[in-house]
């Protein structure tokens, strides 16, 4: 099994991260080495806002599923503390108010389907799903976590709860990770055909693998990574022209870039840059 300490995701996603940090405390943590083939990282989100104060957190979609434990102020649709969020193809908005605590397991692209034996396509655009692939004792152990516990203790509990589900990694899932790694490692690849040539994989097989494991098409994943790159640059204070930014990440014209950016982010790149 190849080393899977390497990232299979971009570090972008949270819109206006500096603003979010004024309202919540976000911590990312590593998982146990035995879980690294499937899990990208853990994260803990905690907030305690004054009465009458709220904040809308917006996140761009990643091609990955999340298992989360949520207590306190919860998002729409959450009625039990342990839930699964599938791959979302749209911006993910959550209004935060009062006090709340979330501990999330961010799986790698395809990782949740491989880890649980499910088909990722069935979870596409499902923001809240029950954790049915996991045994009742696993769900019960996770539900006991909360803000009263140290974050490192929570990490240890989650490591132990998920450890019984580890298995041999399927070659097809390993292929998905290799394709994702190629997409992330060479940002000059802007068309799926280029990725197929680089990875030596046919169109129909790639589409089948992504539907089974990722839940979204290769074209969608590649496009999301390009938007993530552009948003990250803007958040980092990019001051160049938008035409140059569009060309940097493979758009042939600024109008096309503006349209795709606006559809996903909700505002134009010029407005976001302000």
Automatic annotation (TrEMBL):
Q: Keywords of this protein's UniProt record, alphabetized?
A: DNA-binding, Transcription, Transcription regulation
Q: Does the keyword DNA-binding apply?
A: yes
Q: Which InterPro entries would you find in this protein's record?
A: AraC_XylS_family_regulators, DUF6597, Homeodomain-like_sf, HTH_AraC
SMART domains this protein is in? HTH_ARAC
Q: Where is the HTH araC/xylS-type domain?
A: 174-274
Top-rank lineage group of the source organism: Bacteria
Name of the featured protein: Helix-turn-helix transcriptional regulator
In which organism is this protein found? Rhodococcus navarretei
């Amino acid at each position: 099994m190849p080393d899977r300490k390497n990232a299979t995701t971009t570090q972008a996603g949270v819109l206006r991260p500096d603003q979010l940090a004024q309202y919540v405390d976000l911590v990312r943590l590593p998982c146990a080495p035995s879980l690294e083939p499937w899990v990208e990282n853990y994260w803990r989100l905690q907030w305690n806002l004054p009465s009458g104060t709220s904040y809308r957190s917006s996140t761009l979609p990643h091609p990955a599923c999340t298992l989360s434990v949520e207590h306190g102020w919860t998002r729409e649709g959450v009625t039990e503390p342990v839930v699964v969020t599938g791959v979302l193809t749209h911006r993910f908005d959550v209004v935060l108010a009062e006090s709340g605590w979330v501990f999330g397991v961010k799986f790698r692209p395809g990782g949740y389907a491989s880890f649980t034996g499910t088909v990722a396509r069935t979870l596409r655009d499902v923001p809240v799903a029950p954790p049915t692939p996991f045994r009742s004792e696993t769900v019960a152990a996770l539900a006991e976590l909360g803000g009263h516990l140290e974050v490192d203790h929570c990490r240890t509990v989650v490591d132990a709860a998920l450890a019984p589900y580890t298995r041999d990694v399927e070659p097809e899932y390993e292929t998905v990770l290799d394709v994702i790694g190629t997409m992330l490692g060479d940002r000059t690849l802007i068309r799926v055909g280029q990725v197929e040539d680089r990875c030596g994989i046919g169109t129909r097989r790639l589409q089948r693998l992504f539907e089974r494991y990722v839940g979204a098409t290769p074209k969608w994943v590649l496009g999301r990574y390009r938007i993530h790159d552009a948003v990250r640059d803007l958040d980092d204070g990019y001051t160049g022209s938008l035409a140059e930014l569009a060309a940097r990440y493979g758009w042939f014209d600024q109008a096309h870039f503006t349209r795709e950016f606006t559809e996903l982010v909700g505002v134009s790149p010029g407005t976001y840059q302000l």
